[in-house]
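Sanity check

After download, print the first record. It should look like this:
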Amino acid sequence: MMKKLLLATMVAASLAACGTMGGGPGEHRTVGQAVDDVTIGTKLKAALAADPELSALKINVDTTQGAVRLRGEVKTFALRKKAEETARRIEGVKSVNNELIITG
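Expected structure tokens:
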């Protein structure tokens, strides 16, 4: 957990040096928004890793301006729903786009 926090801090510091960030065509993020997105992603990955039923290695988390996108694989519909609920509980998450595929 400490390594993840250190990694998130280093990423946030490097983003802070960039000024405003481009999030895509016509989309601009401030440094604060970029740091918030990194924080959300780090907290969510840590929560997924802490859950023995969910695999943080098989779930990709992308965050842009508080909107989270989950991609990857889970074994059941219940786990797909659980991953989404876990994401919604993270402070700062505004929406969740659940693109997880059920493989089992």
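If your output differs, re-run the checksum step. Summary of this record's structure: The first strand starts at residue 21 and ends at 24.
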